[in-house]
């Protein structure tokens, strides 16, 4: 362990830089959020229609010190007050991850603090503990983000069993690609959700994929291709997608995604007899999906949990919370901690 000081409250600084958000947060004794600062690079990447890794890394370098300073200021603590620095070390963009990891190592070394490496996907799950003190493992969790779609059993605060994962695109990635294809731009998720509100979910019969080897695995490349084909045939008839067409495609696509997620959640609640279900990741901020899965839980008599949207998309509060549980388990890292872009759960 790097840190040696004994302090009454456990204060953790969380740092997140795995994709296009530069974020820092301070938590007290696990889930009490003293500050949560997020600098989103979305406007910058919107110009290019998606995240440009090189630009993301450079912006993290430009912003990280400011973001950490503000997180400490908002929490009214200094680096000396902290017990540990928790940082996302994977999965994510290697250049982006390295900025957070290097920063966390420098702080831990300079201030003799414990260093904790956090798996970003586990961080998303831990976002649920922030506003739901009654939530205790074991529970079932659907993590749906831009890079990952996993159905997992949380066995305790740091251990997970993976029940299913996507075979191709992540759910958020499919939203982003569809948005670009129908001319809604980046970031796709919220734009497709908004367009879908005005559309007919039965306008197009997009496929709901089933995976024979593991019925809990997901696949979103089929629905994505079907949407692209629909757009192409529209163009071949000499028509450009108008607002009504965008809305119908968005609503039909969203219905297909929600159906395949709901089907697996219902199946898992039934098979594993788990009575608690939680959602996590950027896609979990989708109101239609939240509603559908809440209803599925009611149907199965399971308690339903979901973080507020600000804790669904990337943030450092969830990293500090996950880091706290790792820290309490003695899972600290050395100064040789490195970024692991392909880190698995
Ligand atoms: O968890 P997150 O912020 O970053 C990753 O770890 O990937 O998730 C970002 C993803 C993006 O693909 C974005 O389009 C999607 O979450 N997303 C949504 C919504 N808000 C964000 N997808 C559907 N509906 C939304 N409202
Ligand atoms: Zn994420």
Describe the protein.
The protein is of the alpha/beta class. It folds into two domains: 11-127 and 315-328, ATPase, nucleotide binding domain (Nucleotidyltransferase, domain 5); 137-307, Nucleotidyltransferase, domain 5 (2-Layer Sandwich), CATH 3.30.420.40. It has eleven helices and ten strands. It has helices spanning 42-46, 53-75, 94-111, 120-131, 171-181, 188-196, 221-236, 243-272, 287-300, 309-312, 317-328; strands at 11-16, 21-28, 32-40, 84-90, 114-119, 139-144, 149-154, 160-165, 276-280, 303-305. A five-stranded mixed beta sheet has the order 3-2-1-4-5, sandwiched between helices. Strand 1 and strand 2 (21-28) form a beta hairpin. The longest helix is centred in the C-terminal third of the chain and has 30 residues, at 243-272. The radius of gyration is 20 Å and the shape is globular. The relative contact order is 0.19. The model has no long low-confidence stretch (mean pLDDT 95). The structure holds 5'-O-[(R)-(carboxyoxy)(hydroxy)phosphoryl]adenosine (KG4) and zinc ion (ZN). The site of zinc ion has 5 residues, from helix 4.
């Amino acid at each position: 362990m790097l840190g040696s000081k004994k302090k009454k409250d456990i204060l953790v600084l969380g740092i997140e830089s795995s994709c296009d958000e530069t974020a820092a947060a301070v938590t007290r004794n696990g889930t009490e959020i003293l500050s949560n600062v997020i600098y989103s690079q979305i406007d910058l990447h919107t110009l290019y229609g998606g995240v440009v890794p090189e630009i993301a890394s450079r912006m993290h370098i430009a912003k990280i010190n400011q973001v950490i300073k503000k997180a400490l200021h908002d929490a009214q603590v200094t680096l000396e007050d902290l017990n540990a620095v928790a940082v996302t070390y994977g999965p994510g963009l290697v250049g982006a991850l390295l900025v957070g990891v290097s920063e966390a190592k420098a702080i831990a070394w300079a201030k003799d603090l414990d260093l904790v490496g956090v798996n970003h996907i586990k961080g998303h799950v831990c976002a649920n503990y922030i506003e739901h003190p009654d939530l205790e493992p074991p529970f079932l969790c659907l993590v749906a983000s831009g890079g990952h779609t996993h159905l997992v059993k949380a066995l305790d605060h740091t251990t997970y069993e993976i029940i299913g994962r996507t075979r191709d695109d992540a759910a958020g990635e499919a939203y982003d690609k569809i948005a670009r294809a129908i001319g809604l731009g980046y970031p796709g998720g919220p734009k497709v959700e908004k367009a879908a509100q005005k559309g007919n979910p039965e306008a197009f019969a997009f496929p709901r994929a089933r995976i024979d080897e593991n019925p809990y695995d997901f696949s979103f490349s089929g629905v994505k291709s079907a949407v692209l084909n629909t757009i192409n045939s529209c163009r071949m008839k000499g028509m450009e997608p108008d607002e009504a067409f965008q809305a119908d495609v968005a609503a039909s696509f969203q219905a297909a995604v929600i159906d395949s997620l709901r089907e697996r959640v219902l199946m898992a609640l039934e098979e594993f007899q788990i009575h608690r279900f939680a959602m996590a990741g950027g896609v979990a901020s989708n109101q239609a999906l939240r509603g559908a899965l809440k209803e599925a839980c009611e149907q199965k008599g399971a308690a339903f949990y979901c973080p507020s949207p600000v804790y669904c998309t990337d943030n450092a509060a969830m990293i500090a919370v996950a880091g706290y549980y790792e820290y309490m388990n003695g899972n600290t890292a050395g100064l040789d901690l490195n970024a692991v872009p392909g880190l698995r759960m």
